[in-house]
Amino acid sequence: MDTKRTKTRSTPGDWLKKQLVPRAYDRHILFEEIFARVAKIFRLDDLLRYLAQTMMDRLDLSSLTILVKHGSVFEVMRTAGNVNVSGVPFPVNSSAISHLRRNARPTILDKGRTDPWRMLATKDEVHALDRLHAQMLLPFVGRTGLVGFAALAQRGNRGFSLHDLYLFRELGRHVGLALEAAMTLEDLSRESAHRASANRELELAREVQERMFPQRIPAIPGATIAGRCVSAQAVGGDYYDIFLTVDGDICFALGDVSGKGISSALLMATLRASLRTLILDNDLSPTQLVFKLNRLIHEASAENRFATFAVFFYKPRSRSLTYVNAGHNPPLLLRGKEVIRLESGGPVLGLFPDCTYEQETIQIEPGDLLLVYSDGVTESINPAGDEWCEEGLIAAMRHRRKGATAVVEDVFKSLQVFAAGTPQPDDITLLAFEADGIGKRSQGALEVGQPLPIDLPEEIFLALE
């Protein structure tokens, strides 16, 4: 039986397949290239520049506007083509943004259609959408939600096929992830730069604060004195001072400002400056001085800020020590086996404008050791969470070397052994004053450490010999 070969006739559908399938394939490959490229761009400016150039040139667009979320609005970051919409923000609670966030897919803009979200839009929002001259809103969706969107139009106002909508949806997802990563990196870079700047400022503040502590210690006939402060942060609120007064007394003080950080350091600087200024008025008694100091601190600080404070005036010739304790931990006077707590004074500085204070004068005996300290010393903790307490401080005072500098070193060493590397929550400050035997004299120039360069009367020098 003879068979006849039948000739296949082409149809219009076959021609369309030959023409359209390769184009769809090529367009798919193009989008895949864009997907891969945006995943490798980590700088926000570079990413936006690439998107604007590539989408305009290779996707045959006539206009493009890219908006990115900044705080509570979506702002224009890039425009291309025949559009000029700089300064057109979309609030996060606007109807268009709410629709893109819920829908998370390309939205076709057709004035002939009555979409619910357009009906809910305000006049300003409708006007802003019209200025975009867009056929489509393409949401950029990241892991955290909507991070931006693009308003775009094709050349010749051609429509978008279902395949186009699929590809653009995938593009929105890839760009959303890339935008999210780039914005996070930019935020981290900005935060890092800000932190570096803040660290430089803190370092400068620390250097300034260190200069506020005594740089040179005045020599004291028959006694030694030394201090040390270790801040829990870059700057702190603890303060100590040692200097020679106008009438030849040795003034030393220790204060502890409430709180930590820059605010405490500023109040500490105010306390130091106020004390040294008031000392120039040698007609003030210690109680009068602390009374005025309290007023100044009250005026310079917030309602919840205060400072504990203890100030001492030592007369080398008479070996008498007068002090006022303004709410500070009682300084410890070790006299042989006896421990005397110096508590006379009044309330802390700064809480109330008018406070009364008492002063006390004691006679210093040979071998007396006075230790003034901030609460960071006795509240230091070990790995178990136990505090060093006053007992630990007194034990360290009993087992120390002679001389105020050695006392401070030995107490700090004992504290470090107890803490065993545990970070301490508060500033730690010590001020040690130790009396030698009668007739002994410390080495050094008497006049250093004065609050201001002044000439002392000759009889003061004779009295201090």
UniProtKB/TrEMBL annotation:
Pfam families linked to this entry: SpoIIE
Single annotated GO MF: phosphatase activity
UniProt keywords, alphabetically: Hydrolase
EC number: 3.1.3.3
All residue ranges annotated as the GAF domain in the record: 26-189
Residue ranges annotated for the PPM-type phosphatase domain, each copy included: 220-435
Lineage top rank: taxon: Bacteria
Protein name: Sigma-B regulation protein RsbU (Phosphoserine phosphatase)
Species whose genome carries this gene: Granulicella aggregans
